[in-house]
Amino acid sequence: MDTIGQARAEDGSYPRRVMAAQRTVLIVEDDDAIAESMSYHLEKAGLRTLTAGDGARGLRMYRAHRPDLVVLDLMLPGIDGWRFTEEVRSEDPRVPIIVCSARTSEFDRVHGLEIGADDYVTKPFSMRELVARIQAHLRRLDADRGVEPTAIEVGELRIDPVQVQAYGAGVSAELTPREFQVLLALARARDKPVPRERLYREVWGYEMAHGDRSVDVFVRKVRRKLDAVLPETTVIQTHYGVGYRFAPESAAGHTEA
């Protein structure tokens, strides 16, 4: 297994994906050895890379080049990864951000996802895993472009795959693409409980690691945004011991244990 600071696998190869155009990944990492290793392996996988050693330069490069995905350390000089994420999210809700950090506490992971990261990988990590995760996020971008146009409408809620957005009484919930994908996956299973592991596999594109809280964090974010546009309706119900289900109900008559 490839890990940072260790030798590559014998063939040094990664599965390549056929895409309409070469994708660009911005790496914001202040450890030169780690950044160079990431860049090398991603380019071996057919991706173009840009690197920045601090948050301020990373933001300038992001704005100048508009990469397809960002790989981000948190402990950066100057502008740290937290602020970088907030700045990028305020400008672009769509670009995937994968945090790669030595900060391993549950608080850091949850906070990173809450402020806008799409994924969180702790150091040291498998380089093959990182490449696989990046490819999964990029495949999702391609899939979103070719998604079927049929919208899902329940009462005043409209889930529109073409716009990659949900609307309550005609008002946008301002979901990020990842939040929208969570809602859409639940809505397609209408009234059936979806286990966390299955939801993670469908939305993130790979298996959920033990103890990963990403699904819970994103469901909470979706609920909060839907509550803002549909205050009298609860859309996502918790199916205790299993996961979540899409079942719009009146908020007045709904109480969760």
Report what the structure shows.
This protein is an alpha/beta fold and 257 residues long. It has two domains: 24-145, Response regulator (Rossmann fold, 3-Layer(aba) Sandwich); 152-250, Orthogonal Bundle (Arc Repressor Mutant, subunit A), CATH 1.10.10. 39% of the residues lie in helices and 21% in strands. The chain contains eight helices and twelve strands. The protein has helices spanning 32-44, 55-65, 81-91, 106-114, 127-145, 177-188, 196-204, 214-229, and strands at residues 24-28, 48-52, 69-72, 97-101, 119-122, 152-154, 157-160, 165-168, 171-172, 194-195, 233-239, 243-250. The strands form three sheets. The protein has a five-stranded parallel β-sheet, with helices on both faces. β1 (24-28), α1 and β2 form a beta-alpha-beta unit. α6 packs across α7 and α6 crosses α8. The model is unreliable at 1-11 and 14-20 (pLDDT under 50).
Write the layout of secondary structure elements.
Layout: E1 24-28, H1 32-44, E2 48-52, H2 55-65, E3 69-72, H3 81-91, E4 97-101, H4 106-114, E5 119-122, H5 127-145, E6 152-154, E7 157-160, E8 165-168, E9 171-172, H6 177-188, E10 194-195, H7 196-204, H8 214-229, E11 233-239, E12 243-250
Parallel strand pairs: 1-2, 1-3, 3-4, 4-5
Antiparallel strand pairs: 6-7, 7-8, 8-9, 10-12, 11-12
